Amino acid sequence: QGSSPGWTLPSHSLAVALQRAGLMAGVSIKKPDAHCRTYDFMQLDNGLKAIIGSDPDCDKAGAALCVNVGMCHGRKDLPGLAHFLEHMLFTGTKKFPKEGEYHEFVQQNGGMANAYTLCYFTNYTLEVKPDKLQEALDRFSRFFYEPLLTKDCTDREINAVDSEFQGGMTSPWWRYVGIMNQSANPEHPFQAACGNNKVLRDEPKERGVDLYEEMLALYHKCYSANGMTLVVIGRESISELADVVKHMFGGIVNKGVTMPIGDSHSDKPPFLREEWNKLLLQNPVQDVKELSFSWVIPYQGPHWRQKPTSYVSHLLGHEGDGSIVSVLKQKGLISGCMSHDGNWLEGSFSLLNVTFDLTDRGLDHIEEIGAHLFAFLAMLQKTPPQKWIFDEMKKLAEIKFKFQQDQHPFSLCEEMSLNLQLVPPEEVLSGKVLLYEYDPDAIASVLSKLTLDGVRVWHQAKTLADRCTEKDTSYGSPMALLPLEASWRERWTAAASAGDPAAFASSMGLRLPKPNPFIPEDLALRPLPAEPPQLPTAVTGVQAPLACVFHRQDDVLKQPKAQATFLIFTPFLTQGVENYVMAELWCRCVEESLKEYAYDAEVAGVGYSLSVSSATVAVTLSGFNDKLNVLLDAVTAKATSMREIPETIYGIVADAYGDEVSNAAFHSPPYAQCSMRFTELTSRGAVYPSYVRHATFKGMRREKLTGMAERLFNESGCHVEALVLGNVTPDEARQMSARLVQGFGLKKALSAVPERAEAVLPSGSTVWRLDGTDAEDPNHAVFVRMQLPDSVEADMQTRLVSTVLGPKFFEVLRTQQQLGYIVQLAPSRSMKFVYLVAVVQTEYAPDYARSRIDAFVDEHFKSVEESLTEEEFEVCRTGLLSDLKTKHKTLGEEMGRYMGCISNRNYDFDRRKRSIDYVEQKASLAGLKSFVAEQLRKAPRIYTQVRKTNPKEDKALPEGASVPKDGADLRLWTTHQETVASFAQDATWLPYNTDVGAAAAAAAAARL
Length: 1008
Known about the structure:
1008 residues; alpha+beta
């Protein structure tokens, strides 16, 4: 194993090495079966706690450091200070002073890095190829004991924070956070704020506050080793990793500070009861209709063994027969419900929320919805907690943990480092999942706090616009804080104080759930063949319309789980947008009608989806293979027996669908609008933009969905292809597929698969200017695509270019030029093409942002051609190889790697292997320079520009900056639908394979 420059690993005995390194004897870390790593715990002399994970076969290494300092520890008159410190920490260190060097090193070496700030914690995470872990840690660790915190970067990093703030301006979550911040007791330290130019730059200057000095004070006073938790995962042995950690993180200073968390953070309440117990109205940007009941309860962190709120939330959010959700859906008042906590807002308190997604009818029945909730709560409060319910939850949690799928180091290190702040090291993986102790008194205590006089009712809908006469102080969202309606209080009080709560709840159709029938029983692994195939292969003995079943029995994850996706190609979906919308609605109606039945399956780790995807109806099953066939039979039986859609079911589905397509059409962020317009322009065959689907939906009637199963699958015929992965034999995969065909009654086969195609972009450069669709979003966006015909060579060369230039693009356009929060250069691949994509979402004029992208591309393409060194190329080549060789950690990942080969109908399952071979054997610096000069520079280029319709002025250009004039050879498009129609007539379209025998032919060729 390699070691850091200037030091070597000592050759002590293992026992002495462990003792010297600070490893703690007797600490045994519980882990899921899928975790092949060896874990150990150590505490350094400076108080820093660390988990180290050794995996000699890992294809990625990673690390995360969590410090117990967050938003609530900064000055309350400087909201966002802790977040600003997180940004400033990356401005360089004494040993590595160059800005951007850390991120460039990580990304070019096959990795990524990120950080985030919560109310009580800040987390810093990285992932990198294993042989570069120690070099990465040498850079990473120094942020915590020798950061430069460069003063000259202050204004720039304030702007970066402000760009992040502006990106969340229309987000329902951030607007909720803003109102929570506004609602807090001024005498309590709770605050939740991203920060922006106003509160971090303008207002402090007016008050004579030096923000930079306050940031330094927060770092030097509070960033202390004894408040830090670290996780490092690598190939080295435990003793070697322990030495690495001690050497690199032992220099962090222990300042002996204890950062406050929990109920003891303040002797003042976080929210004043008389202010909390109100009705909060909000007029959202998006089409959202929600009703939430929210209670502030004591901080639940110390109760991680008992988890009393898990019991309560399980019952409040249950969707089975007799639940609040089931009864209110039957009445057509809600389309969904979730019981949840306060997420990262918690730390000095916890929240218990019950959130209902309302239907249009539900908007007029708030009183009735609340009456059902308080009647159910009264039943729970007067009925002793049921141990059998806890035991069932405990058993399911144990099964879930035992067979929990592994994660890549990036997400795993981040999660573990945060958990280590909250639970003992032995339970760092299990503490958040398992239920350890049944404590009926703790459950009763939580339930006792869910009262009418302690609730905040939060109601948001566009119909409330006239009543929302105030503005929240963070995001300016229209709102109003009012007393609870008198009639609501009266009825809810009656429901909460009924003489016989169980009988009263029963009269409303409410009762406790029954035992879950989907708890898996057969958890045995199927015997593997002597030589398990490494790629999906076709099973034999299938008959049309089942054209091909591809299968791979898992020999990597070794869990009793499976995942199956069935694509049912049907011409019905390509015969117009009305058909497409009808099919989408029908799929959702089938899912909705099975919600009560399938909910238990979902809780037990078995799920399904029925959806429309391009020219197919897609059926996906996943989870413990023991119960998948039972669930599949239920899905096909319901789909074929429900000839007419019940009015209540249609109402629930139509309500949610209408809001969803409306939000996609009119409230997507600008960069997403760019992407949607490009797809609309260049894709053909069952591709209907959200605004077209929205318009069609407005004229839809329930009766049009009558007999949809027959019309979808048998009027014109269908064609089925499947991929089955996991703990399933070839015979079981064949039987499952045949079960689907029989269950849906699929009989008539197609002679050709429905046509789809992609368009070749016009030569040269094209700018397509479009107006944004969300009048409240303050951002523009520019999306640039350079198009090349797909091949392994073009794909890998484009990825190499992205690996070389991606970090530089971020550093120059985001960090230095401050164009916006969303800035990225990345590769992309479709069925027919490879793209190099650049995206910037910005408050500057879009033409200016485009000119900055062009300037970067011109300068850095030239630098690749003329000055890229063999050393930097080799770093990027091996970094790309590290990415390509990364093994899948879940069945979902494996499904994602292969499913596109089936949906795109090329069946090119060994594409990854050929890509690895190309990068290992053929990629060269000379080849990359030639690719940039001869292909990428000459590739057709389209700039999709979405200009905001918000009247807010654009951000002023930097001093001396201007927007260059466009060249005479630049093609300009300025219309939307007219451009799409005209382009469709003139473009060259490359069709997908429509041969119904293509899958079988590919399978036969693979066998040869």
